[in-house]
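[scheduler] slot 2 assigned
[scheduler] job type: sequence-to-structure, two independent chains
[scheduler] chain ordering preserved from manifest
[runner] begin chain α
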Amino acid sequence: MKRKFVFGVMLLATVLSLLLIPGEAQAASAMVEFTTSTSEVSTGSEFTVVCRVTSSEVFSDVEMKVLYDASIMEFVSGGRKVSGEDGILQITSTENEDEVKKRTYSLRFKALKAGVGAVEMGKRMTVRNLEGDSFSVSANRVTLTVKDPESSEETPDPASVTPAPTGAPSLSTNNKLKSLRFDCLSMTPKFDTNVLEYTVKVDCDTNILYFNYTAAHNKAAVRIKNNEELLLGENDVRIVVTAESGDKRVYKLKVIKESESETRVREQQEKGKSDITFSVYEKEGSIFIQNQYQFQVVDVKDDSILPSGYVKTSVDLEGKSVTAYTMENDLDNNYLLMYLKGTGTEPVLYQYDRMERTVQRYTGTMTQKVNKGGNVAQEKELIPKTGAWLYAALVSMAVIILILLIVILNMVLRRKLGRGKRELDDMDF
């Protein structure tokens, strides 16, 4: 009987636990559909590609990249929510107060030359509702054929064709790029067909480097290597252009991916905000701390600058090893000292609070707290723990002495009063 009771309790507990486990919510989905009224256009004519975002559930904001072949078509217009050029468009429809199940964007293009080009969605696509919940997104692509009314076949650039021996086919040795553009923060230097090395910077959310190109010869093959699964820091990406003859040309890219803190600080600076939260990032081999102000972390060269009892250590802040100084007998103290250099100033000691993640100017027993909103707090004198105990002891002793004085004084007065009374009783009036 007892065994059955225990088994029943265990079974009930198992059922209740399963009921209490929250099920994983099914993410809402959205569809991006590109459509056009025709699949074939003539050079010089304009055409419209409709981008329609739909979902079975209501949504508010849309952010997406649209890729197109800039060698075949030219972007003309798309409304105030569409911007971009050179093969990459940005659709930004955010901060909407209404929720809908469909949003439509009209993209106007002009056909440049004969060929086949596509319009499709880039990998960076966001659809979300007013609560900030993101939808899973799928998309199609639309392909257009551009024809030259005067010629059924594109004539290659004569300069790109190498004369061939009599009786043998002519094979082009042109392995150059005519244009190259990336979906990135910056690219240096500016693209030049004869420059083979570039530095490209992307934000922390970029995992794939998208690019748009035009080969100098229409039969050259272009292939990109290592542009997926970008890692934090430097990435080695190569673009290999193979001519019709088999000759290869390699464009080397040093792709620098920002950390989350670097991206956050940069975006806040670009928006002109002053309420920058505490961040740590690395730039040109140096560690910087960003609060309202920017500080560079430097090493103390003269140990006499440090208070007595402090030793050098390091602390991990947002994945960065930052030089700091702590009390030798209290390595786990929440307060550390850092030697920081502000913009245009000499380095001085600052106090870092591990708990509040704030930086304070260190002045011995006085601190001047730098708040993230830009207000400077009043200076407050800090009483060390040992001083507080000493102060309390002195106050207690003073109280005890005062009480003793009152008792002694009371005894003396009572004795004098008693003696005076006896003298009065002995007097004969």
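[runner] end chain α
[runner] begin chain β
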Amino acid sequence: MKFNKSKELYSKAKELVPGGVSSSIRQTEWPVPLFFDKAHGSKMWDVDGNEFIDYVMGMGPNIFGHAPEFVTQSVYEDMQNGYCLTGQTVKENEMSEFIKKTIPFNRKVRYASSGTEIVQVALRLARSFTNKNKFLKFEGHYHGWMDSVLYNSHPDISNEENIFNPAPESGGISHGTSNEVIIAPWNDVEALENILKDNHKEISSIITEPILWNTNVILPEDGYLEKLRLLCDKYNILLIFDEVGTGFRVALGGAQEIYGIEPDLSTYAKSMAAGFPIAMLAGKPEIMDFLSNGKVVHGGSFNTNVMSVSASHATLNYLLNNKDFYKNLNRNGEALIKGLKEVASKNGIDILIQGLGSVFYLSFTSVKSIKNYREHALNIDFNKYKEFAKLMLINGVRLSQNGRWHMSSSHSEEDIKKTIYAANLSFAEL
């Protein structure tokens, strides 16, 4: 494969945009961040004419694949009557009614444009509702790029003396924000209990990815989320589920449906609108009413813009009326996982795949399971995965650079066969 046009465009982009990209993670793509002409279904085509089976899928949102016709048509029709109304529409109400049918618990909802934004609303509500200032997050969890939450998503674990101290993930983060966050290891009830005994009077909320989407797609250990719920009740702490990644992807009702755990607040984004920018906060009415009585302020000119509402309305309507969607999505994902494991074994390559059929993580490691960030950081061969992703791209399959694979309903049996074939070739070259 040749990437001459992408290389040329990237060289120009670096003169105009820092790093040549508008999201830092895109910088890591080999050989350069690619420029694309079009995408449809499971496929993408770059400016050099290369065709790829895509498992990046917008980093998760594209559960139907790229440009699903029923979403595109809905957006096209609705946008003829305006884009940014800064007012309410009938479809927004209907979308909210759809939401009530999907989330397993009684909730009120509020909308924004991105997952990062809506997490900020959740934390602000928690502080106001509890009259406590700090929050607890877990090592390896990512809740957006704002100063208040960008701590310990990928911390350096080499210095055991600084274990679980707040570590900023970026330069320029306000020093004061570190005083508001407490870090804990995930999937460790005993460690969490010890932290809460000493700090619960200051902690307004615990925020967690119920499935650790951003690190190895790690599932919670049996009983862990139940214990988390009990500890929050015991210490008057709000439990926030960050379902920005898992919501509407792992199940219609998200991880809450799978595990049957009721958070106080939960955040959503990515798969909710099949690739259009929208985010949502769902919460218990008594908490959410702080937004209506003026105690907590939340705004945004682009919140519930016509295109995003239309896309979300079409997405949710489709999911509600296609009961086998997730069964089929997970079945195809499991078939791909099975094939990847087989060709890895055939080539004498040790891999670990964790997650669910709709989303999973492939690691180069000999360990049989990974339950938290530290085990992930200590046991994964990241360089080998980067080389594997490079080889897969050459063989016509585009992967995310962080190891997470996203299935869509547009991935066919033929796509899966071709992907397994490409993996076999790539494993053989490692």
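[runner] end chain β
[qc] chain β: The chain has two domains: 4-67+324-429, 69-320.
[scheduler] slot 2 released
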